[in-house]
Amino acid sequence: MKDIQNPDILLIGGHDEKSTDILVRFYSEYVHNLPRIHAMSLENAELTKVAINTFLTAKISFANSLAIACSRIPGGNVDIVTSAVGDDTRIGNKFLRGGLGYGGPCLPRDNRALSFIFYELGVPHDLSDATDEVNLGIPGAVMGLVQKKLGSDVSGKSALVCGITYKPGSSVVEESQGALIAHRLRNHGMEVSVIDPDVDADDLSAVGGDFSFHAFFDAHFMDYELVIIATNDDCWKDFRREWFNPDTIIIDCWRILDDEFHAVPGYTPFGISLVKPDDSHLEDLWTNR
Fold first, then answer.
1. How does DSSP classify residue 251?
2. How far apart are CA 289 and CA 284, in angstroms?
3. Residues 231 and 167: beta-carbon distance below 8 Å
4. What 3-state class would DSSP assign to 288?
5. Which residues contact 243 (CB under 8 A, 6 or more apart)?
6. I need a surface site. Which of 52, 61, 78, 151 has the fewest CB within 10 A?
7. Residues facing 226 on adjacent strands
8. What is the pLDDT along the chain (289 residues), one digit of tens a residue?
9. Beta carbons of 125 and 118 less than 8 angstroms apart
């Protein structure tokens, strides 16, 4: 409701001037802010709508590519990079936080819809396709990190995925990154459990797969060799270091856990390099100027 009553813009596709005016008056009475109104034809409105969502998917995938790069660069930190990039007013910070990819019923659908429209019109659609490809590859990048920490053969090991909805505060699991990661772990032979404050055991049927579901904070955290925080939900901030086995690998995909976890050997923040930079090359650069 907050989003509906405080939109960035009002986008209205009208069949004729009379129906458009009715919609403009209707929405103008119910929004709390004073957004710019864009009234246009049905065709232009539909293209605008899918274009907005597709632009957001490109921004998300770009930030996530930066997260992967930062994790491989000595001293790399995606939050430092994206904060500076987003401060450029031509870009902005919204949807520019490196982490897991987009999911849910809207963004994947509209990205593919625009790609299809472009294809039908003979317009290059490589950007939309690449955005989708990057997004689908994020669970694989996480799996690679898991194998780097636990070894290439993870069969039989136990994992807990924290968050299987596509975003916090929603019970929708459609195309969620947490669910995709859980499937990836299971396909590698791991025993996978999931927890999420916004779903129950019945919702798990929409995810599919052979997973054990635990009620929120009813999981025995000591039992797991791997814990993955897959949603950017503040509830995970309630985790305490003593709940986990010291040898547990904790992959924090949103860098949400507080400082007490940072000293844990197995703590792995996605998008931040664990390799310390070697300053000697900076001295060489200065000497050779």
1. E
2. 9
3. yes
4. coil
5. 221, 222
6. 151
7. 159, 249
8. 888 899 999 999 999 999 999 999 998 888 999 899 999 999 999 999 999 999 999 999 999 999 999 999 999 999 999 999 999 999 999 999 999 999 999 999 999 999 999 999 999 999 999 999 999 999 999 999 999 999 999 999 999 999 999 999 998 999 999 999 999 999 999 999 999 998 877 777 777 777 888 877 677 888 899 999 999 999 999 999 889 988 999 999 999 998 888 888 899 999 998 777 765 555 555 555 5
9. yes
The two three-digit tokens of residue 24, written as one number: 């403009």
What pairing do the DSSP bridges indicate for beta strands 226-229 and 158-162? Answer: parallel
pTM of structure = 0.89
Amino acid at 128: S
The SS3 assignment for 256 reads coil
